User: Fold this.
Amino acid sequence: MDDILPSDLVALAEKVIQAHRERGTTISVAESCTGGLVAAALTEIPGSSAVLDRAFVSYSNDAKMEMLAVPSDLIETFGAVSIAVAWSMAQGALAHSKADLAVAITGIAGPEGGSELKPVGTVVFARARRKDLDDKEPAAELKKFDCKTRAEVRHQAAICALELLLPKPSNSA
Amino acid sequence: MDDILPSDLVALAEKVIQAHRERGTTISVAESCTGGLVAAALTEIPGSSAVLDRAFVSYSNDAKMEMLAVPSDLIETFGAVSIAVAWSMAQGALAHSKADLAVAITGIAGPEGGSELKPVGTVVFARARRKDLDDKEPAAELKKFDCKTRAEVRHQAAICALELLLPKPSNSA
Assistant:
């Protein structure tokens, strides 16, 4: 295969697709700072259509609200790069698809947009399963990548997102 | 910048973002076979948020219908890889965003899914401008890429889509 995406991304995407194909489960992603990179890696794998049928590139606040029904007050209160918004994006991806598992990514890829509290490289991830929809406790985490460039931040964020898209060993998605 | 995407894609994405920033126009993409690759290239460019606020990865037929309001009878009559469906996807991207210009991509990246009439490498592109919304004539074209691999087909398709996202010299988007 010639390379249009980094080989580590493609290898991990292949693991994700294969694991869900074996289980008969499906996934979706809601991407802000990665802007389609995770979906691009997943769809690079032949047969990925059995596992991923759609993804949401919700780059702006309006897009998060309109595509994923993220409440505006969450964005106003906590900011677009927050556990609350990432969790809401993941829930929105489930609500707007039939996927068993959704991962959301929202962060500051830079070079602009950083602050003291949330410097460039701050990325929040959320992982939501349809079978846990009643859970009120968000499964989300904030990471700070110590990367030099926008491309590096996005690359690292996409790897994290793909890892979260792997099924948990226990069962199903 | 380190490379997470091919340099030709990133260079072209930069031209697209810069041209629309200068004009104050905005764009969106509806991606099937490229699966987020075009959005990933566009969002690789710092400041792209002024130009692209969302993108749709509508990989399955259901996703095309549910995310972009592509009529099911179009898909049934013409197939998902057709001028009619690409045009409808582009119109749907305009309808579900505030973008001035939308490009849609639907094709057969392979290795499976090809037929005699539509072999692997068949990709249809549509370009729709909000100001031309009353046009009944679809601005769409079907191309057949003579590529060896899925990655090559997607790479070539993404380049074509980015070229269509450039503003026409005459004016605005």
About this structure: The longest helix of chain B spans residues 7-23. Residues 39 and 84 of chain B are 22 Å apart (CA to CA). The first strand of chain B starts at residue 27 and ends at 31.
